[in-house]
Amino acid sequence: MEDDRGFWQRHAGKMTGAVAGFLIALLVKWIGLGWTLLGLALAWLGLQVGSRIDEGDWEWPEAWERVWNRWSKRA
């Protein structure tokens, strides 16, 4: 069975995953596991917040008020 798609179209996910894995391995080597995990966690958090903003699920004034109320109760 001949596939008319190019190499990149057939293997885009594999290539992207391999490059991401290699970059994460370099980060672990250069800055350590803890800092790498912290960076990945913050990137994930930013992605989640950005996707909610893009979808219209998150309005800044309401979100800021929720965060402010949560932190002001601790003080």
Feature tags:
mainly alpha; about 80 residues; about 0% strand
Q: Can you offer a commentary on this structure?
A:
The chain is an all-alpha fold and 75 residues long. The chain is 84% helix and 0% strand. The chain contains three helices and no strands.
| Biggest beta-sheet profile | none
Distance between the termini: 67 Å
Count of individual helical segments: 3
Average pLDDT, rounded to a whole number, is 85
Judged by helices, strands and strand pairing, the structural class is mainly alpha
The portion of residues forming beta strands comes to under 5%
Low-confidence stretches: none
Q: How do the helices and strands follow one another from N- to C-terminus?
A: HHH
Shape: flat
Q: Work out the radius of gyration.
A: 20 Å
Give the fraction of residues assigned to helices.
over 70%
Number of strands: 0
Tell me the layout of helices and strands:
Blueprint: H1 7-31, H2 33-55, H3 60-74
Summarize the structure.
The protein is mainly α and 75 residues long.
